[in-house]
Design a protein that fits this description.
Distance between the termini: 82 Å
CATH superfamily of the largest domain: DD-peptidase/beta-lactamase superfamily
Radius of gyration: 23 Å
CATH topology of the largest domain: Beta-lactamase
CATH class of the largest domain: Alpha Beta
Helix content: 25-40%
Number of helices: 12
Largest sheet: 10 strands, antiparallel
Number of domains: 2
Number of strands: 23
Amino acid sequence: MKLRTTTILFFASILTYAQQISKTEESFVDSVMNSYFKSNGPGAVILIAKNNIPVLKKSYGLANIELNVKNKPEYVFNIGSMSKQFTALCILKLVQDGKVSLQDDIKKHLTDYNSHGHKITIENILNHTSGIKNYSDKDDFFPKSVTDISKDDLRKYFENDSLFFEPNTNWSYCNSGYVLAGLIVEKVSGKSLAEFLTENIFKPCGMENTFVGNDDSVFVNSVSGYDNVQGLENTFEAKYKPAQYMSWTYSYGAGGIISTLDDLLKYNNSLLSYKIIKKELLDKAWAPYILPNGNSTNYGLGWAVGNYQGLKFVAHGGGLNGFRSYGILFPNEQLYIAVLSNTSAKTPVTYATPIAFKIAGKPLPNLKNTALDKKLMEEYKGVYSIYSPAHDFLPSERYVTINDNKLYVQLKEGDELDGKVELFNISKDFFGIKNSPQKFQFIRDKKGKIISIEVFNFPVQYGPYEINIKTDKPVPTN
């Protein structure tokens, strides 16, 4: 018996050792995270898990600035739009139980919904192809969001707005669709969305510190959220203020969950073991939806999905006042990375993505600071016309200009003109900008002439690539 115990301990130690993160990898994580988060400001916590086991859990910065309380990996954070996958899973659980179909018209369950004469399916609202406008983009959203709103009034807040496009013909990120998904869960199940989530996901997964947020409960070990005084993201020398209050009622179905690193790992382990829904449905949730024109949306049902150099991944971020979150799972490698942050000043995808792909063995290419040939820069220079629902159908253009032998890009939407941002070369016709996942791929015709730019986030993209068509317009001089 003693020999058997010794043998088990021996092999357990080998397994644990084999799953440890290397010193080089940990140093890389520290270097990235410390460049974003200072010890005297709000910060973040990070989890890296291999084969369902944590190999790194660390914290950076403060959980509360006023009390000088340091962050800890076990603290509770608002995860924002990472909540969407949970709402999607509620729908898929109902599909698995034969109570709804993804092809159901939403009016089958929300009979008086104003769909403007179109069929909008449950699948459309989950994969953002419904054409419904995003309520959180409305001009009066932030002033309204400080007061509570009923679920019925939240629905009325957006349902009479005209559609962006005919359902199933395009893609546009839409919180409104997940409000409707939550309402369908409640209508079909006869339970509140919070009750359904608790009974069908939180408890079965053993998520003891995950809840639907509300203003009537005390959530132990919850961190304080902070915004940047300047209102900008990714400002390294940010000045912080307490996050602007927003009623939890505006997050219904789209972003209202709070959780911890450990609970998110339990949840992902349960997904991989098909404890929540069966493989067939999870595979569908993790497959990119293809539009009728053949373009990939790079989005499934509650997850952004992609493949980089043969490495399949599913991912999603989240953001609400004072909080940002990001989780990425490489299912074939059983590798999961999650970052939870208590400031809106830093976008996790900019630091979590390079960490994730480095740990996965596919480090992302670096931006180059090499001088470009003047003739080549002239080929890129021009005015590019944009069509994308993300630009709200405003007349939109992107300018590519040259200044001091450097290439710059500038976005114009309606009458608003953004500042110029320098482009850095990655490879031939492929460019990026500093501290951003946004990339620019210049496209040539068969004769080698630049005809357009594909604009996308790399390597994790939400929605189809944005196409900017080169025009004959002269580049503005100012």
